[in-house]
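Reply to dn_fold:

You asked what the input looked like. This is it:
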Amino acid sequence: MSHAGTIEIKNLNKQYDVKGKPLKVLDNVSLSIKPGEFVSIVGSSGCGKSTLLRLLIGLESGYEGEILLDGKRIQGTSLDRGIVFQEHRLFPWLTVEQNVGLGLLNAPGTQAAKDKSVQEHIALVGLKGFEKAYPYQLSGGMSQRVAIARALVNRPEVLLLDEPFGALDALTRSHLQQELQRIWQAEGITAILVTHDVEEAVFLGDRIVVMQPRPGRIKRIVDVPLARTRDRGSYEFAAIKDDVLSEFSHHTHSESVNTPQALAA
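and this is what came back:
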């Protein structure tokens, strides 16, 4: 089992330069995430949730405030943070095991140990028997399983997920949400999910961070005190989902954000 990281975000501000003028995208964001916690982040278009995730992975820089992992400032990408994007980004000329093995390209250890970890994580995501398959031979859901295995193969402290199931059909998405919960519990690591799907956020999250846009700020944090595995049809589940959706029902911008499908990155 991997070590679970502690995330501390303190007074985070981020802006871009657009046509010579500053555009603030994150405003005084502070958030503490405990080891092993699963945090879902939702918000309407322009709220900065994907920018926040890129800052956590180290793909963005030039911010004010602090982003700490286990008390140390995040600087650039690192093996201690794994990332899964909406598109699986597999290399079509590599097999499943070769694509997963890319996650260990710069990792220490013997080749035998790396090969063992690759096989363990292929089994973890339910793809045993597909080790020699190529991406064109896989469904979209299977390809995302490969991407998850690749993100986890070096046993990171934190798993970051940027709308990982947004491009999948509803049935596949629901199934993979259950599988992600199982994998997260098996690995015991900290997970942060950015999603436009409020039901997904409630199903997976211990807490839901609701963000509001222009500039992006944390509007509210909603606890999800439901036992796992969660029953989507229960009154308690529906009550939390409706509570989160209510934060968007009186949105003042022209876009409609009062349904999970309308919440954008």
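The CA atoms of residues 113 and 181 lie 26 Å apart.
Hope that clears it up.
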